[in-house]
Design a protein that fits this description.
Bound molecules: 6-diazenyl-5-OXO-L-norleucine
Helix content: 25-40%
Radius of gyration: 27 Å
Order of helices and strands: HHHEEHHHHHEEEEEEHHEEHEE
Number of strands: 12
Strand order of the largest sheet: 7-8-12
Number of helices: 11
Structural class: alpha+beta
Low-confidence stretches: none
Shape: extended
Length: 324
């Protein structure tokens, strides 16, 4: 009380701790104690049914997990179901199962690990987490992993679609290939080196980062350039500029540009609607249809699956940049 921090981490108390350590075979030294610093941290805040929750941030998991739990049960009428009724308990247990799975993957000391706290505490994330909750059966924990968070960095090649006031159009795509390329910055020059060698087919049948396979046509040879999927495109109608379009997305670049054009030309969508429309993708191998979430309604999916199409949801496909 009288000496503040030094009343505990230095002086008599510190000496007593260290001698207790020594007699018990412990590791903590006087230096460890004098090095220790408390850190001021922003509290976690959340909202539950109009109540503001102010609670402990990382390195405790408590605050985030508490807000996640409250957010997860918020949409359900537990008051009607009653205190500790089977429905209330089931719901809370299933929320807890999922939140603790997130705790195991996403929470730790924020000075060492980027904790995705905002994403974890959004209501839409909790809703998505409860999608596989089944009233008729306990969800097995073996089927639950941490939830899917939008990656911090989307796959990034860069595309620009530009039209100037004279009607000159530019469609330009440039690529580092993988996120941050080879992850090497040229010292003093301020740019990254790419890892474009991945766009070559290293040997027949061996897929690259984007799952693409190839053979002799795209084999590595001195002076040869690797096969890209970049599709910077200008569309004209009756000799006049109609659309400028392109996107990042590795192997999905081609199919994203394809669907964007079809969405406008065949399905009369506006440019924004064509860009926003959820995309699907097939690239021969693997023999699967990849779809963005919500691209196909459940009936369409069932019909296609009945014909033998293997359909798998994945993260965002493309990030189309276009002008009509
Ligand atoms: O040129 C290509 O096809 C690849 N280097 C593109 C990679 C890419 O788009 C990554 N990000 N979205």
């Amino acid at each position: 009380r009288d000496k503040g921090r030094d009343g505990f981490y230095a002086g008599t108390v510190a000496d007593l701790i260290v001698s207790e350590m020594q007699s018990g075979g412990g590791l903590i030294s006087k230096k460890d104690l004098s090095d220790y610093q408390a850190i001021w941290r922003e509290a976690i805040t959340g909202n539950y049914k109009g109540y503001k929750i102010i609670t402990m941030p990382p390195p405790s998991s408590g605050g985030i997990a508490l807000v996640q739990l409250l957010k997860t049960i918020e949409p359900y009428p537990i008051k009607r179901w009653g205190f500790n009724s089977d429905s209330t308990v089931q719901l809370m247990v299933e929320a807890e199962r999922r939140v603790y799975a997130d705790r195991a993957a996403y929470l730790g000391d924020p000075d060492f690990f980027k904790v995705p706290q905002k994403q974890l505490m959004t209501a839409s994330y909790s809703l998505a987490r409860m999608k596989n909750f089944n009233w008729n059966q306990a969800t097995a924990s073996s089927l639950i992993n941490e939830g899917n968070l939008a990656p911090k960095e989307s796959e990034q090649t860069t595309h620009f679609s530009i039209v100037d006031r004279q009607g000159n159009a530019v469609s330009i795509t440039t690529t580092l290939n993988g996120s941050y390329g080879s992850k090497v910055v040229v010292k003093g020059a301020g740019f990254l080196l790419n890892n474009e060698m991945d766009d070559f087919s290293v040997k027949p049948g061996t897929p690259n980062m984007y799952g693409l396979v190839g053979g002799e046509a795209n084999s590595i040879a001195p002076g040869k350039r690797m096969l890209s999927s970049m599709t910077p495109t200008i569309v004209e109608k009756n000799g006049k500029l109609f659309m400028v379009v392109g996107t990042p997305g590795g192997s999905t670049i081609i199919t994203s540009v394809f669907q964007t054009i079809v969405n406008v030309v065949d399905f009369d969508k506006s440019m924004q609607a064509a860009v926003n429309a959820k995309k699907f993708h097939h690239q021969w191998l693997p023999d699967e249809v990849f779809t963005e979430k919500g691209a196909l309604d459940s009936l369409t999916k069932i019909r296609l699956e009945a014909k033998g199409y293997k359909i798998n949801e994945r993260g965002p496909i493309g990030r189309v940049d276009a002008i009509l």
